[in-house]
């Protein structure tokens, strides 16, 4: 009981006969004061039931509510149940026993009819169940019971009830009137709670949409995830986005270098200009100069027209040189000249052409080691390595595996008119995987699963059959002392893992060449390498043996 209530109650103590009207006013005033401070029903009802006992002698008060109302659903059956949700003077065990089917006993009858029920003596009315409180725990004298409906609109959703000692010199009708008033107030309070809960659910829904929007904001460059490692890399990218210096993206294969390069372009002042991507590993050595810088008509056999190279097409924009470590040494010198002077010369042309291009390069090699071994020009390395940004592997951003998997799942479903979903356990299995191939490997596994599964919901057991190293259809790259060279391999593996430049030693290369009669293409295929990667390793081996 609050201090004002205690003071008011103490003021009435010297009187020989308490003023019931005064007690009623005190009770209602305290309840309204509580409502003004808090709309939480548990706070208001607890004190209301307490004051009913202390001031009016209405003991063991309880608020019984229909299960359907508490669940926020419509009344679906006339035989549904209700239970005691708030009480004063009842133990937890007694409250738990207070469950009533609509129409059962006094409480159930009020729920069914919506009419107030007054029991003059609980011992004389066979409808009274004595379910919550055993009769032996009540006073031996005559005990009455009053139950009034709590309504929401024109629907009864609960009951406000209490015991009353009959010998009190207060008219029963006055207690009934007070309880009806409190029941009306209770209904209004419960309605407010219902409205607040609805608004809360709406806000939660909006928050979920905002969270998705924030994730989309993080993914505004097409980069999915919110892990600390990823956010650090994005922060570095955005800090240097408006500079003009070259950027070198470092990281394992499959970590999303092209997405980061595009993000750097979109975040820069050049975002309205072209973004040109060039895979240096896919260009034949004899065509490098023509592809990068263009050629004039008649520059070489077959050059029937002039053509602008990739650098010329990227003017006023960004050019992304992926796998820069695969560029031949002769071409590295020409690229260095372009970076230093800001000009290009088409193959077969006689004059220079100024260009304004920002270069973003990427490699999964350690270029410092390549420089030391003589396979990459030191001056070009310094020119490219002005702003190095290391991209985290998927193992370093494990928190992003689940959102990435769901992104690839939705994408593959849409592209192939499928409706496949992953169980929570399947997503757990994806999070536990090591993913040496990083995001590219994860994407491949998701796409393969969606296309080959015959289940609407993929279980953990099924997803594990598609994970690397477990699916019989997955060809793994040969490793020394574990997988012998396969001279009969007739096709490229389904997923070719990235192998560092030191992945195969001299004996591996010689074995492959010997088994395939000196055919570099077949030797490369048997080792899980591209012909360019094999050729690079073979030339490096020859250079080492000649020194």
TrEMBL record:
Coiled coil ranges: 182-220
Transmembrane regions: none
The Sigma-54 factor interaction domain, residue ranges: 223-451
SUPFAM superfamilies listed in its UniProt record: GAF domain-like (SSF55781), P-loop containing nucleoside triphosphate hydrolases (SSF52540)
One GO BP annotation of this record: regulation of DNA-templated transcription
A Gene Ontology molecular function term of the record: sequence-specific DNA binding
Protein name stated in the entry: Transcritpional regulator, NifA subfamily
Top-rank taxon, per record: Bacteria
Disordered: annotated span: 469-492
Keywords: Activator, ATP-binding, Coiled coil, DNA-binding, Nucleotide-binding, Transcription, Transcription regulation
InterPro entries hit by this protein: AAA+_ATPase, AAA_lid_NorR, GAF, GAF-like_dom_sf, HTH_Fis, P-loop_NTPase, Sigma_54_int, Sigma_54_int_dom_ATP-bd_1
């Amino acid at each position: 009981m609050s201090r004002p209530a205690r003071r008011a109650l103490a003021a009435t103590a010297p009187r020989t006969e308490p003023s019931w009207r005064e007690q009623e006013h005190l009770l209602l005033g305290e309840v309204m004061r509580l409502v003004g401070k808090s709309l939480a029903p548990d706070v208001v009802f607890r004190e209301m039931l307490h004051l009913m006992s202390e001031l009016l002698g209405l003991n063991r008060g309880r608020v019984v509510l229909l299960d359907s109302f508490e669940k926020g659903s419509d009344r679906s059956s006339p035989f549904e149940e209700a239970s005691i949700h708030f009480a004063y003077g009842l133990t937890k065990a007694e409250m738990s026993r207070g469950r009533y089917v609509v129409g059962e006993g006094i409480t159930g009858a009020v729920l069914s009819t919506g009419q107030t029920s007054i029991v003059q003596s609980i011992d004389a009315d066979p409808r009274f169940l004595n379910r919550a409180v055993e009769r032996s725990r009540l006073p031996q004298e005559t005990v009455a019971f009053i139950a009034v409906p709590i309504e929401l609109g024109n629907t009864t959703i609960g009951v406000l009830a209490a015991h009353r000692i009959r010998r009190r010199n207060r008219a029963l009708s006055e207690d009934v009137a007070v309880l009806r008033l409190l029941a009306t107030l209770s209904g209004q309070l419960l309605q407010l709670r219902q409205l607040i809960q609805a608004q809360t659910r709406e806000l939660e829904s909006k928050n979920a949409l905002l969270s998705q929007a924030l994730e989309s904001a993080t993914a505004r460059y097409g980069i999915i995830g919110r892990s600390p490692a990823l956010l650090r890399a994005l922060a570095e990218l955005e800090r240097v986005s408006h500079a003009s210096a070259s950027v070198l993206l470092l990281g394992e294969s499959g970590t999303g270098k092209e997405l980061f390069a595009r993000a750097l372009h979109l975040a820069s002042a050049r975002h309205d200009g072209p973004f040109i991507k060039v895979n240096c590993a896919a260009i034949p050595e004899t065509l490098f100069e023509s592809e990068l810088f263009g050629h004039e008509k008649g520059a070489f056999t077959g050059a029937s027209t002039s053509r602008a190279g990739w650098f010329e097409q990227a003017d006023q924009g960004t050019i992304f040189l992926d796998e820069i470590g695969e560029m031949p040494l002769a071409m590295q010198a020409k690229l260095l000249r372009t970076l230093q002077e800001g000009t290009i010369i088409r193959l077969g042309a006689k004059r220079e052409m100024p260009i304004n291009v920002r270069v973003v390069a990427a490699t999964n090699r350690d270029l410092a080691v390549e420089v030391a071994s003589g396979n990459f020009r030191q001056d070009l390395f310094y020119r490219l390595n002005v702003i190095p940004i290391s991209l985290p592997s998927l193992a370093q951003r494990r928190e992003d595996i689940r959102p990435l998997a769901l992104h690839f799942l939705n994408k593959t479903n849409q592209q192939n008119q499928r409706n496949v979903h992953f169980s929570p356990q399947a997503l757990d299995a994806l999070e536990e995987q090591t993913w040496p191939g990083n995001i590219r490997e994860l994407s491949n596994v998701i796409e393969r699963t969606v296309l080959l599964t015959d289940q609407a919901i993929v279980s953990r057991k099924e997803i594990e059959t598609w994970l690397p190293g477990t699916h019989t259809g997955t060809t793994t790259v040969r490793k020394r002392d574990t997988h012998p060279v396969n001279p009969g391999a007739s096709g490229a593996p389904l997923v070719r893992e990235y192998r560092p430049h030191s992945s195969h030693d001299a004996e591996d290369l010689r074995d492959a060449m010997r088994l395939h009669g000196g055919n570099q293409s077949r030797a490369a295929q048997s080792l899980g390498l591209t012909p360019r990667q094999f050729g690079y390793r073979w030339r490096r081996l020859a250079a080492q043996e000649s020194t």
